[in-house]
Amino acid sequence: MGSHQKPSTAGKPIRCKAAVCRVAGAPLVMEEVTVAPPQAHEARIRIVCTSLCQSDVTFWKLKDFPGITPRILGHEAIGIVESVGAEVTELTEGDTVIPVFLPDCGECSDCLSKKSNLCSKLPFKVSPWMPRDGTSRFTDLDGNTIHHFLSVSSFSEYTVVDIAHLTKIDLDGDVQMNRACLLSCGISTGVGAAWRTADVEEGTTVVIFGLGSIGLAVAEGARIRGAARIIGIDMKPEKFDVGQLEDFRVQMVALSCLECIELQVINEMTEGGADYCFECVGLPSLMEEAYACCRKGWGKTIVLGVARPMSEMKLECFEVLHSGKILTGSLFGGLKPKSDIPMLLKRYMDRDLELDKFVTHELDFKEINTAFDLLIEGKSLRCVMWMDR
Ligand code: CXF
Ligand code: ZN
Predict the structure, then answer these.
(1) Residues 281-297: what's their mean pLDDT?
(2) Relative to the alpha carbon of 332, which ligand is closest?
(3) Which residue's alpha carbon is nearest to atom 3 within ligand 1?
(4) C-alpha torsion 308→182→348→208, nearest 10
(5) Separation of alpha carbons 319 and 325, rounded Å
């Protein structure tokens, strides 16, 4: 070891800063935590940037399970491998990685199939533990356990992630960390839903319910596919300036309340129903509306929004039988993280896919509670936080 090199931290616990959710819905608490070394099939990551996704807010608010405290939230990020556990061959110290809540083991029949991104070796679940051994790598300074979130927990300077949840990327092309981190969740989900789940075709009509980052990412995917018309429905049209919506080729329909969707208006605008409807909010009533607004015979409705646990939507059986419409959900936009994230990154580097316009704010990690306020108030799309600032 040269005298200028720091001693290796591999194999030892690391003490670092993390924003801990101690009470559901209350501001996160910046505190010192201990991050244990990675076990077999795991890597410890130094997070470089993390952004805030709507799902962080959804789970932060939940008082009952799957809400749990204390917990380190955060799942949209990018980082550098600090050390790896036993049996890790695909990653090494210094690699740049994007963590993803959805596993991609690359070996099971689902990971090997083109038709699915739902790994069956480590099935996705909203668990507060590491996916393989069901324990935690985080403790507070009193030695008490802190829970994980979506197998990522990026609101910490260091985190431990299973290798099935890590995609190695090559940033040789000079892509900045504060852009690449967006591919970790929301933007990939929206673009993937348009490309993979819906397979939007040229000349078609797309209706998007909810214009947050995911809805706009669906619009971006649909624009690239050559959709003829992209209609966006939102209750707060004032959060956009005209240029912003033009960039995404979105034609806006404003709602005065969520129950007042003018089915008839959408029907007229789309001449009998949209080819594709995307629900990006997570409200059962909106999912029902989206299904009602898509074209009989071939219309597809894609659910991306995360609804409250145990909520149900209602469909009339007669309508399902007679309409021939398709209704499907889409986790991570139907994409396989390990192969599709590098593909999306290349499209961004080729100036084909938009990422820059999603970043409305950049903050220091210590300002994380401001990031929550901005998203909740509908003032931000993506707020990227730098961990070392
Ligand atoms: C969600 C999808 C449903 C479970 C939690 C995570 N995706 C991203 O935010
Ligand atoms: Zn997310």
Answers:
(1) 95
(2) 1
(3) 306
(4) 20
(5) 9
pTM score, two decimals?
0.96
Give yes or no for residue 307 CB within 6 A of ligand 1.
no
**Class of residue 86 by CB neighbours under 10 A (exposed 0-12, middle 13-18, buried 19+):** exposed
Residue-range domains of the chain with CATH: 15-184+354-386 (3.90.180.10), 186-332 (3.40.50.720)
Nearest Cα to Cα of residue 330 among 308, 309, 303:
303
Model pLDDT for residues 119-147, shown as the tens digit of each residue = 999 999 999 999 999 999 999 999 999 99
| pLDDT surpasses 70 at 256 | no
Spatial contact of 382 and 213, defined as CB atoms under 8 Å apart: yes
Q: Cβ(167)–Cβ(342) under 8 Å?
A: yes
The reply to whether ligand 1 has any atom less than 6 angstroms from the CB of 331 is: yes
* Ligand 2 midpoint to CA 44 (Å): 21
Q: Binning pLDDT at 50, 70 and 90, where does residue 1 land? A: very low
**Both tokens assigned to 234:** 């939102």
Nearest CA to ligand 1 atom 5: 55
Q: How far is the CA of 280 from the centre of ligand 2 (A)?
A: 12
Phi-psi region of 168 (alpha: psi -120 to 50; beta: other; left: phi over 0): beta
Edge-to-edge strand order for the sheet containing 326-329?
A: 250-254, 229-234, 205-209, 276-279, 300-303, 326-329
Helix (H) / strand (E) containing 159: strand 158-162
Which ligand is nearest the CA of 306, by number? 1
Those residues whose beta carbon sits under 5 angstroms from the ion ligand 2 are 53, 55, 185
3-class DSSP assignment, residue 116: coil
Complete DSSP assignment for 60-81:
HH--STT--SSB----EEEEEE
| Closest ligand by atom to 185 CA | 2
